[in-house]
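Deliverable D5.2: sample structural annotation.
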Amino acid sequence: MGLPPPPPLVCKVLVIWLLVLQQLSGATHHHVEAASSSYLVVGSGGYSTVQSAVDAASSGGSRTIIQIHAGTYKEKVLVPKGKTITFQGTGYPTIVYGDTASSAGSTEASATTSIAADYFIATGIIFKNSAPPPPGGAEGRQAVALRITGDKGAFYDCQFYGAQDTLYDDKGRHYFKNCFIQGSIDFIFGDGRSLYQNCQLNSIAASTGGSLTAQKRSSMGENTGFSFVSCTITGTGPVYLGRAWGPASRVVYIYCNIANIVTPAGWFNWGIPSRQSTVYYGQYQCTGLGASESGRVSWSHELSSSEASMFNSIAYIDGSSWVPF
């Protein structure tokens, strides 16, 4: 099925201009003027819930900008296919819920916010799953803050909080810039093709350990994977840089600063040795005590400059035609 047409040029130009102004000014929140083709407000006399504003947004190619005022919105939110929406935060509003895979019936259903729409944009929003970490760091309490299955989604200056399986980067091409992502076990996971740029990955793993990523590429011919460029890795450990959820899992770290929380082996084969010959795991010119490749598994490697160039720009996600800036 083909993708819907991109947003009208006037809306795209408006969004780009607003984001560029914020980038240049260094502001911590974003202001949207009512000049957009469709503009809704949550809080401060507008809609009382984020979902009610999403429901009111028009379907089709026209973009709806939903300005969400500061506050805590305890609800589950679904942005369905067919709607082209921007969440524009003022004062870092929080969308929070506390479902787990056990209480909701599945990992997917545990998500506080689910994005099924293409061309979704979020700026200055906190997405949170408030479920506590698994007892003793044990697995089995997946609790997703945000799940995205739509294509061409972009997140700027957003924060994602959870314990296990925080950010379900499920499928599609996605761009994350200047974001904060926190969790313990597999807290960025899925089969998306995504670029994370200038983000902070903060581990709250217990002493039993965790993993920053669990990427699920199913075959070496599939063009998915996670690329982290100029990111900072902080928090507690030990953690793996990634676990091979899929047999051809693909994750790279480029120019990242890595704290001394990474287990020396760096990567885990999910307990399936055959995956060691089909995964693609590597790093390039990373710094910090956790970046040392001494003790790394033999099936990961330091990328060459030409290999790194395949992953270190928006070209990796075909972003020149859709990434706002």
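Annotation notes: DSSP finds four helices and 28 strands in the chain. Residues 1-36 have pLDDT under 50 and may be disordered.
The annotation will be released with the project's public dataset once the embargo ends.
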